[in-house]
Amino acid sequence: QRLQSASTAAMGKDNGGFLAPKSIANRIKAKGLQKLRWYCQMCNKQCRDENGFKCHCMSESHQRQMSMFTENSGAFMDEFSKEFEAGMMEIIARKARSHRCSANVIYREYISDRNHFHMNSTIWETLTDFVMYLGRTGKCEVDETEKGWFVTYIDRDPETLRRLEVG
C-alpha cells in the first residue's frame, strides 16, 4: 500500500477526472453554444466566463474593433440588424408560410446556429420589438395570444403572386 501511495504522488495530483473544472470547460467548449452574456459581436468572440470576457475587452484587437464601431455605430447596427432579419425571415418563410408559428420557436431555431447574429447587437431590444416590426412593415401577419407572439409569413414574391392569380 505504501508503494501505491508513493506512485500516485509521483504521477502528480489527481485532477478529479470528469468533474474537474478543466474537463467541464472543455466539454462546454466542444458543445459550441455558450452563455450569450460573454459574447462580443464586434469580434465574433465567445468567452467562457466573466474573467475571459474582461480580458478580451482589454485586448488591443477588441479596442481597435470598438474604435471602428464608435466611428460609425449606425452602419454596424444596421448591418447586424439586416443580417439578423434575413436569418429570421429565412426560417419564418420556411416554417410559417402557410400557417402561423410561435415567434419563440422560430427564434430558438435561429439561435441554434452557432454563427447567428445576436439580437443584443441589433436595433431591436426584444423579440417582441422585432415581431412588432415585422407586422408594421407588412413582412408577416402577427398576433399576440396568451401563449405569446405568433407570425405568419406574407409571401410577396412576384412569381408566387402571378401563380396565385393564374391558378
From TrEMBL:
UniProt entry keywords in alphabetical sequence: Metal-binding, Zinc, Zinc-finger
Record-annotated C2H2-type domain positions: 40-62
InterPro entries the UniProt entry points to: C2H2-Znf_KIN17, DNA/RNA-bd_Kin17_WH-like_dom, KIN17-like, KIN17_WH-like_sf, Znf_C2H2_sf, Znf_C2H2_type
Any Gene Ontology CC annotation: nucleus
UniProt-recorded Gene Ontology molecular function terms: double-stranded DNA binding; zinc ion binding
GO BP field: DNA damage response; DNA replication
Family: Belongs to the KIN17 family.
PANTHER family attached to this UniProt entry: DNA_RNA-BINDING PROTEIN KIN17, KIN17 KIN, ANTIGENIC DETERMINANT OF RECA PROTEIN HOMOLOG
Protein name: C2H2-type domain-containing protein
Organism, as annotated: Chrysotila carterae
